[in-house]
User: Fold Alkene reductase from Flavobacterium azizsancarii.
Amino acid sequence: MKLLEPITLGAIYLKNRMVMAPMTRSRADNEGNVVPLMSLYYQQRASAGLIISEGLNISKQAIGMPFTPGLYTNEHIKGWTEITKTVHEAGGKIIAQLWHNGRAAHSANKNGERPVAPSAIRIENQKAYTGFGWSEFETPDELTHAEVKQVIADYKQSAINALEAGFDGVELHAAFGYLPNQFLSESSNKRTDEYGGSIEDRSRFILEVMKELIAITGPDRAGIKLSPSILYHGMFDENPVELYAYLLKELNKLPIAYVHLMQPMFPIDEFAQYPKDVVEAFGDLIHKPLIINAGYTRDTAEQIVKDGKAQLVSFGALFLANPDLPERFRVNADLNKPDPEKMYAGGDEKGYTDYPFLK
Ligand SMILES: Cc1cc2nc3c(=O)[nH]c(=O)nc-3n(C[C@H](O)[C@H](O)[C@H](O)COP(=O)(O)O)c2cc1C
Assistant:
């Protein structure tokens, strides 16, 4: 299978083209420190060509959900050093996904600290998950210009921390309505400084962050995850094609390692301006290796890689439930089903490290 052939992704040699998609599993402790079980979880999945870590909060301000790990204290770095070492010893590669939730957060998960965002606009028609159940989203505080600069500096520091912890690279989480996505989208960004307004100005935050990340990692070790056709967390644009075409054109100019693109995951029929197939809409505009994601199976993944429309495919739920997914694809074995109840549940190994390997 083409999917099982090696590839060099930017500066990183991978033994196959199957990527474990970033997945928040909410197993860290209250301080965002990793626990030993997390090492086992990642080690079990090291047969992936590349693992992208669950979203790692780049600062205290970045936190959105309970029990999510951080990458901003010495203790965090120490914890992740163990995990990257375990993955490398098992023959795998692992990239840190850098995460800032922005307004997709709740003060109940942040010791009372209020969420921040490009503009003071609340997420409507969706609930926030807190350690105490579901709640309305709060109106975030608008980041001042100086605070925007500080967030960019926090991303930079998190890349320094990622390298110190032994990660092979970093990925900016700019998808699914989190902070970078909030800068991009006209529904969440009404700023009047150079970070809001035109498409160029709304793209500026992401491009500045990517430049800072690359300055730390060196060329070809920093990637970006985007979801142009996902309206989750109140993302909405009149002209998403023009927006993402501009952003992708500018990203092409930077020595980024890859673009990680999500297909739409929710129905978008009523929004005619949103492409139903992001590879058809944007594939030709991307001059970097493309990791395609969302809903791919053994056959559809193999086909898109064979067609040369994507170089790699990332799998979320399938890797969650099948630690040996590449081997299962190789022999075309049956797959374990993921248990949705245990996806985020804090605590023990159930639905985490107890999914069986092939006999
Ligand atoms: C439990 C769970 C947690 C997730 N957490 C993250 C995350 O932290 N960062 C991210 O970019 N995507 C996250 N995702 C989305 C996945 O990376 C992926 O885009 C999505 O599952 C679609 O791929 P799939 O159809 O192969 O599962 C998560 C998905 C799941 C199932």
Observations:
- Residues 21-24, 54-55, 97, 173, 175, 225, 262, 293-296, 315-318, 343 surround flavin mononucleotide (CB under 6 Å).
- The longest helix spans residues 145-164.
- The first strand starts at residue 7 and ends at 9.
- The chain has one domain: 2-342.
